[in-house]
Amino acid sequence: MKKKSSYINRYEFISLLRQRWLQFLIFILTVLVLFAVINGKQRVDQRIADIQAAQETVAEKDSIGVILLDSIEAGFTVNVPRWFMPDQPNVMGYSYLRVAAMPPDEMAIIATGQSDIYTHYVKPNMYGESFELNYTELSNPVQLMFGTFDLSFVLIYLLPLIVIAFTYNILSQEREQGILQVIASHPVSVFRWLLQKAFMRYVLLSGILVVLLVTILSFAGVSLVEDFGKTLTFIFLTLGYLLFWFVLACLVNLKGQSSANNAVWLIASWILLVLLVPSSVNQMANSLYPVPSRAKLINELRVVNEEAEEKADELLEDFLRDHPELAGFEGGSVGWQEYFATQDLIRSEIKPVLDEYEIKLKQQQDWVDQLRFISPALLLQSSFNEISGTSTRHYEDYRRQVSDFALVWRDHFLPMIFRGEKFTKSMMPDLPEFEYQPLTTNRLSSANMIALIIYGMVLLFVGVLWSRQSKTNLLTH
Questions:
Q1: Are 322 and 342 members of one domain?
Q2: pLDDT at 139
Q3: Does 251 lie in the same domain as 231?
Q4: Does 156 share its domain with 26?
Q5: Is residue 377 situated within a structural domain?
Q6: Alpha helix locations (H) across 179-276?
Q7: Residue 324 buriedness (CB in 10 A; 0-12 / 13-18 / 19+)
Q8: Pairwise CA distance, residues 211 & 213, whole Å
Q9: Verdict on whether the full-model pTM lies above 0.85
């Protein structure tokens, strides 16, 4: 029996190598993966360049500020407007900002994720009531609708189509050519023969795909060795997704229908699992947990601002009562003191709206996470976004880190403003700096990988049961 299995595998392998369309398949896969990786690398390089440009701007402004401070401390007249004088703490806190950046992950080249919606660097200032609203950037609506041609798009959307073209007639063609009856006359089951043919094609396509991915990603500058764990997870997830579509193709072939009908069934499955189910889940998430509009947030912020300005004196007294370490100093600007006192009220008043935004966004994400198991495409997309560091969870964590840093930046200058102190050149090295702490990947990818394997095993089990009940149909349909 082993000799017959080995003979079938060897025969299938040789026949596949002799087919020219296999060469065409390798060419198509190479072009798609190469183009997707180049496109993803360009986006990552642009993201790095934007962050570097912002940091260079800050460094250049810092050098000018040091020169101005040096001249002021030396007693020279500086021909700069008062509101640009760097010896004023409020000027430093507003103009000489730090870049709070979210650098791309090593594997960000794989999936664009949410990076085309959320910004990847912010410059929070001490008047920080507005930066909370500025985490999304203006994007091309057409691009957002159709997505980005990245590696995840190729693997999730296009790879199943290649599998369908590779397997839709793996059994039906043999029956239509009259070969299946000859095979059935030998002591080997049709189902076993089908699995061996499918397995050989799966191994061949998997080998081609893994070599392509490793080679092209390495040439693109992705350090696969340093991120070996993520690389291995990425490859296993891809192979698990590939296995699902091969097993599904075998199951469709076992129906005993014509090659044309098999193609229709597989394309319909692709439309359902890759297009309709994910889009429906996302639409349901937006409908069930709608995020408050930015216009509403801005309007409420304006109303709270007006109310706070009307009772600035009363707010200052309450503020100093809550912050006794800032009370009792002379020389500070009352106007600035009242301003920062009002900001605490504004922050407390606007916090429920911001919290509602965070809660709704988390509910949307939880909804998608819970329903991701109904579609292999959703499983793979969520995993790729996690591996690439471009998921909603990553950007929400980044927003939280920036919010924390904004408070640190504000509190650094607040005592100086209340005391009426001057900012000096010696204080420049002590300015707070933002350090992004990457979010560790959760166990989502492992659970998704297990789910893909279970999908394949369940379909395989159904195929075994189906083959036992329909042997005659396979030969005579």
A1: yes
A2: 44
A3: yes
A4: yes
A5: no
A6: 179-184, 190-219, 228-253, 259-270
A7: exposed
A8: 6
A9: no
